[in-house]
Amino acid sequence: MLRHMVGLAVICVLSLAPIAAAQAGESVPVIRTEASEVLVPAAVFADVRGGDYDVLHLSTQDFRLFEDGKEQRINNVTLERIYWTPAFPDNLGFEANEAFTPKGKWVHLRNSPFPFLRWSERRYYLIAYPPPSSPADSCHKIKITVNAKDSAGRRLTRAEIEPIMTKSGPYTLKAEVDRRNLLINSRAQYCNTPHSATDPLYGTPMSKKMEDIAFAPKNHDNRVNLSAVDFYDESHIAHVHATLDFPSISDRTGVPSFVIALLGMAYQRNGVLKARFSDSEQEGCAFLRNDSDWLYKQLCDQDTFPNHYETEVQLPPGEYNLRVVLDFGGDIRRADAPVTVREIGKQLVVSGIALCSRFHPYKVAQTPPESSDQQNVPIMPFELQPLVSKGIEFTPTGETRFKKKEPLIAYFELYEPLLTEGRDTHVQFQVKISDAQTGEIKSDTGPRPADPYINPGRGTIPISQQIAIGELPSGTYRLDIQAFDSAGGHAESPSTLFTVE
Fold first, then answer.
1. Average model confidence (pLDDT) for the chain?
2. Which of 288, 331, 358, 484 has the fewest CB atoms within 10 Å of its CB?
3. How many other CB atoms sit within 10 Å of the CB of residue 65?
4. Whole-angstrom distance, CA of residue 419 vs CA of residue 487
5. What is the value of pTM for the model shown?
6. Is residue 92 pLDDT above 80, yes or no?
7. Residues 6+ apart with CB under 8 A from 475
């Protein structure tokens, strides 16, 4: 089973903390605290005939927690569900999402006609306790145990494996297990250090390791594709939508669990760091039962791991280099992307252009599965703005190289303040494709009305346009968007390059 955990670092600031593997001798991400209560996420499970079973029937009285070797009073324990979406279809296959920070999501994208085998219900215990007073920036070790007997003196407790999707529907295996043999995967540390909810790795050994790689000369194999697109809201505040695509590692045989982590940093041209973000999740191998012979087969391949990440970064106007380092279980990857955030006023504006190959009806990804015990699964807690035009949500890609048979959609937004002022105005846009080397125009739509894309009462006009790359010779091209309004306004997008293979 994949072990995913998400935890709130501190109640008063509602910070989301990174995921950590509690393995001896391993350098792990840590919990941070600014207030009088630390929240420790912990998964409790049992190994039954090779199956990884969740123990979901424990309470506050069943746990003991030690900080730096001294037992602490536990305030409460709650059983939580991780924010996720079950696998849902898109135009190329299936995708599923999981969220661990307010503005980021890990995505599983699969070019397959069949959904994932796993049903993906994730639960973990959130253990809250008041920590002893400690100096700022100090770090402390945490150990959690489960009592050998419950309050009635029983040693056995119920456990179940996550529902598996079979031909006849979801199927759950259950067993009674000995409490003395339970396995606990929890955070190993917390640090009394302030941090942002969108940068939970700040100050951790993992973050410092990735910072060294970001600052060093670029000597790591990329194997990642990064894009950064500037969008603006109706208050003229910019947010940069960053997208990272990366291939999964397919062979993790013999590795029970590992951490995938990323760190992003946006630098001005003068080298000044203006923003950073981080995120992580823990991965492991899924143990699924073979119904025909009751044998257990370990599935640990690329279909179980994320291969796409999206987040948002707020930046003031300026020229930036966005640099992202990805640590995929010790496999280090790095990518850079330029981004310009423009100073805009109350006039017509065209956003940057997001290149997309995948799309699906909006809201499909937010719908819990149709199962009586799944109805309370929370939807994604995103502050991340979806790219939606005319009821279709588009998944941006960091990739800029496309094959002729692949779909390619340009998603962009127009910002027309006159629409929110109740003035009678008409907006048009024009899409041009030119040869990046010669400047020769290869395609020009001419002015098109934006009326079909307008949402009443909104000054933001989200537009999607399919690019007919099958009609283009192999080569590199420049994509430009222009916009016009009936009041004489004119705006242009930043140019975007793409390659047809």
1. 80
2. 331
3. 21
4. 12
5. 0.78
6. yes
7. 435, 436, 437, 499, 500
Residue 107 class from Cβ within 10 Å (0-12 exposed, 13-18 middle, 19+ buried)?
buried
Residue 206 CB contacts under 8 Å (≥ 6 apart), including other chains:
18, 27, 28, 29, 259, 261, 280, 327
Q: What is the Rg, in whole angstroms, of the alpha carbon atoms belonging to the chain? A: 25
- Give, in degrees to the nearest 5, the angle at Cα 87 between 83 and 93: 140
**290 vs 25: which has the higher pLDDT:** 290
| Angstrom distance (rounded) from CA 277 to CA 201 | 8
Residue with tokens 């005939």: 49
How do residues 348-389 score in pLDDT, each as one tens digit?
999 999 999 999 998 755 544 444 344 444 445 556 889 999
Query: Is residue 103 within 8 Å of 239, Cβ to Cβ?
Result: no
Beta-carbon count within 10 A of 29 CB: 26
Distance (Å, rounded) from C-alpha 43 to C-alpha 124?
A: 5
- Nearest to residue 52, comparing CAs of 306, 283, 289, 304? 289
Domain with CATH 2.60.40.3880 in the chain: 387-500
CA 249 – CA 259 distance, rounded (Å): 12
DSSP code string of 351-371: ---EEEEEEEETTGGGPPPS-
d(CA 114, CA 119): 13
Mean per-residue pLDDT, 438-454: 96
pLDDT value at 24 more than 60 = no
Closest CA to 478 of 499, 466, 496: 496
Cα gap 136→191, rounded to integer Å:
8
Residue 42 CB neighbours (<10 A): 22
Residue 362: CB atoms within 10 A of its CB come to: 16
Class of domain 387-500 as given by CATH: mainly beta
Q: What's the token pair of residue 499?
A: 């390659």
Which single residue is written with the structure tokens 């990518």? 335
- The pLDDT tens digits for 210-225 are 999 888 876 666 789 9
Per the CB < 8 A criterion, the answer to whether 481 and 433 are in contact is: no
Which residues share a beta bridge with 318? 341
**Which stretch of DSSP H or E encloses residue 206?**
helix 205-215
Measured between alpha carbons, how far is 499 from 501 in angstroms, rounded to an integer? 6
Show Cβ contacts of residue 425 under 8 Å, excluding neighbours closer than 6 positions.
Answer: 416, 418, 419, 485, 486, 487
Beta strand spans in 130-211 (E): 139-146, 156-160, 164-166, 169-171, 174-178, 183-186, 189-191
